[in-house]
Design a protein that fits this description.
Strand content: under 5%
Structural class: mainly alpha
Number of domains: 1
Shape: globular
């Protein structure tokens, strides 16, 4: 039960952060929001590691670095996708990243349950339905879906190495993750040179986004000590439920009926995978 609670806490933290952050990025720019969010998260996790005096857990925790590289790529693609597409479409497509750790588990010798074998194609078909604009002669992809698929790839490749690093020590894993992601974003800022100044209100909101994202990573890393990656990764991937709910309430987003079916099927697939 501890693994389930921590993974669901991660999905809640990510769901809120992944709604507020990209919505702010629509007006402030993705790199500006990501930079200050990463800095805020890094400050908090660094203070926690120092306060707890956590001993160095060994080299296995360094797997948080490749996890961060993949996760940061996914997060930037997610922000850009949300800037050009509907939250209710981009979020569940990105959330289909749950298929990747389950697939890796199967290739590594795991035997999925019959429910999971149903859930995987449900998620994939749901992504296909949600991704398509209805009524178009060429059946073009909905806005932001290409970036959402890139986000799904990045997020999916994040889960397995972060699970291993978190199993060694979730505090150090979270600190190394945030240090790496902040470094990557700083390099991007140095190349793109976006406007960085924030007003006091925006700064407070962006800082809260960073802390929320950091807590999601910490909760997920902590869940590694209590459960299998094929379970915790999928439960943590339920964050689109929160993001979509906020989009409906705050933004009153409307999507086509076929795309709503796709969103529902995607979320159902993720739920079935986790239930297995």
């Amino acid at each position: 039960m501890t693994a389930i609670a921590l993974a669901l806490a991660a999905s809640l933290a990510w769901g809120v952060a992944d709604f507020v952050g990209p919505v702010k990025a629509r007006t402030l720019g993705a790199l500006r929001v990501l930079l200050w969010a990463q800095v805020a998260g890094l400050i908090i996790i660094a203070l926690l590691v120092l306060a707890l005096r956590e001993p160095w857990p060994g080299p296995i925790v360094l797997l948080a670095i490749p996890a961060s590289l993949c996760g940061t790529m996914g997060l930037y693609a997610f922000y850009r996708g949300m800037a050009v597409g509907a939250v209710s479409i981009v979020a569940p497509v990105a959330g289909a990243s749950a298929v990747i750790p389950v697939t890796i588990g199967i290739l590594s010798g795991d035997r999925p349950s019959p429910i999971q074998l149903v859930g995987i194609p449900c998620a994939l078909v749901g992504v296909a339905l949600a991704s398509r604009e209805p009524g178009e002669a060429d059946r073009r992809l909905a806005a932001g879906v290409g970036l959402a698929l890139l986000a799904a790839l990045g997020f999916g490749l994040y889960f397995v190495p972060m699970h291993a690093a978190g199993n060694a020590n979730p505090w150090w894993a979270s600190f190394l993750f945030r240090t790496t992601s902040t470094t990557v974003i700083v390099l991007g800022v140095l190349v793109a040179r976006p406007v960085l100044r924030l007003g006091a209100r925006d700064a407070a909101i962006v800082a809260a986004v960073g802390v929320g994202d950091m807590l999601g990573n910490l909760f997920y890393a902590a869940s590694a000590g209590f459960g299998l990656v094929s379970v915790t990764a999928v439960l943590a991937s339920l964050y689109p439920v929160v993001t979509i709910a906020l989009a409906r309430v705050v933004l009153a987003e409307h999507v086509a009926r076929s795309q709503r079916y796709g969103v529902g099927l995607t979320l159902a697939g993720v739920a079935l995978i986790s239930a297995g």
